[in-house]
Amino acid sequence: MSMNWVQRKIYLYNVTFGLYMLDAWERYLFNALVLVLMWFIFYNGYRNLNELCKRYIW
């Protein structure tokens, strides 16, 4: 079984979170929720880091 690096990472992600046993629409929904959550975390982290830099560095 020859898989490239990206396919192995996708497979590991699916097995780790148990997504392999879900239907396709459930996998899409889960991945969409993960993406939205990550966007909120990175966006708010960037905003807080920007405020911290403005307050203490500049």
UniProtKB/TrEMBL annotation:
The keyword Transmembrane applies. PANTHER family: OS07G0446900 PROTEIN (PTHR33727), PROTEIN, PUTATIVE (DUF3317)-RELATED (PTHR33727:SF5). Keywords: Endoplasmic reticulum, Membrane, Transmembrane, Transmembrane helix. It comes from Helianthus annuus. GO terms for cellular component: endoplasmic reticulum membrane. This is Small subunit of serine palmitoyltransferase. The keyword Transmembrane applies. It comes from the Eukaryota. It is found in: Endoplasmic reticulum membrane. It is a multi-pass membrane protein. The chain crosses the membrane at residues 28-46.
